[in-house]
Write a structure and sequence with these properties.
CATH architecture of the largest domain: 3-Layer(aba) Sandwich
Radius of gyration: 23 Å
Helix content: 40-55%
CATH topology of the largest domain: Rossmann fold
CATH superfamily of the largest domain: P-loop containing nucleotide triphosphate hydrolases
Number of domains: 3
Oligomer: single chain
Largest sheet: 6 strands, mixed
Distance between the termini: 50 Å
Number of helices: 15
Strand content: 5-15%
Structural class: alpha/beta
Length: 332
């Protein structure tokens, strides 16, 4: 029978509508069954996949019609970028408390009418705190996908200027967009705006912009979801925390999460004899993003070398390289 990790990878590919990945995993399952001596089952699985691929190729190429998208216009186009992500909660590997908080946000958002009927509002102002690569930006994409909303990302390179009052004026435009178009609005690297007032990095224009943000987020009664993400929670102005409905803290993955990340990342070309224990020890301290990239690099090695599975040595090498880079960065 198919392994649990193969079934999960198959479902993830199906949920993400990744036809090529779905077919690759199904063919891998067929190959595994053949190795176990289940020749007839393997042949049936392979025939089903090939038949599906043939049907897909025989369909006439139809140019899809325009997809209605909420595109920022005018000055907003310089302040916000928009995309429609396709990342599901099923794909995330996070701590149980983080997952529980995200499920709570989704449940409340989906029960908006039920809550409002009792004079209550769903959580929609979130502060995400944690090291780089631990899933904060992915969280915004997941919430947008699960709620079928556009994801708007604030561009701080154009939002923050040196001219008096201009940054606050631009920020006001963004909050007006929140009311006009429901979506998930991400203020990434929020510490560039939310520094402690009076800190050595504080400047007059930043202080004015932060004060405006505090006013706007407190007054905001839109139905959009506002997400602020930062790598430096300790440097944020304490006044910010009480403006949010929930603060979600992210951390580097533990051993169980590392194993799940490795299995997920290597699922398409996974070696059934892979010994994960030594890899987990090397990966301790790495972020989710570092581990995912190491898996991607290992699968590229296997494809370029014509191997049926990723090799233990390749995964170990790429994890060691990222671990060494992390140590060098911390020591610098």
């Amino acid at each position: 029978m198919a392994r649990a990790d193969q079934l999960k990878a198959l479902l993830r590919a199906y949920a993400g509508e990744e036809d090529a990945q779905f077919a690759a995993i199904a063919l891998q399952m067929a190959a595994d069954e053949a190795q176990k001596g289940h020749v007839r089952l393997a042949a049936e699985l392979k025939a089903l996949v090939e038949a599906a691929q043939a049907r897909q190729q025989s369909k006439p190429l139809v140019r899809p019609g325009p997809v209605p998208m909420a595109q920022p216009k005018g000055e907003l186009a310089e302040l916000l970028t928009v995309r429609y992500p396709r990342h599901h909660l099923l794909e995330m590997v996070v701590a149980p408390d983080v997952e529980a908080k995200l499920k709570r946000v989704l449940k409340e958002q989906r029960s908006h009418d039920q809550l409002s009927g009792h004079g209550l509002s769903p959580r929609r102002k979130l502060l995400l705190v944690g090291p780089p690569g631990t899933g904060k930006t992915l969280t915004a994409s997941v919430l947008a996908t699960e709620l079928r909303l556009p994801l708007f990302v604030a561009r701080f390179d154009t939002l923050i200027t040196k001219f008096m009052g201009e940054s606050a004026s631009k920020l006001r435009l963004v909050f007006e967009a929140l009311k006009a178009t429901r979506g998930v609005y991400l203020f990434d690297e929020f510490d560039s705006l939310g520094l402690q007032r009076g800190s050595q990095h504080d400047v007059a224009e930043m202080r004015r912009t932060l004060n405006m943000f505090l006013q706007l987020i407190e007054q905001d009664t839109s139905e959009s979801i506002v997400i602020a993400a930062t790598n430096h929670g300790d440097s944020l102005d304490t006044a910010l925390f009480r403006r949010f409905d929930d603060v979600i803290r992210y951390s580097a993955p533990n051993e169980a999460q590392i194993e799940q990340l490795l299995r997920n990342g290597l699922a398409i070309l996974e070696n059934p004899n892979m010994d994960y224990a030594p890899l987990i020890q090397v990966a301790l301290g790495l972020s989710h993003a570092d581990i995912a990239r190491a898996c991607q690099d290992s699968m590229k090695d296997a494809v370029l070398e014509g191997l049926p599975h990723v090799s233990f040595e390749s995964v170990l090498l790429h994890l060691q390289e990222r671990s060494a880079s992390l140590k060098a960065l911390k020591s610098s």
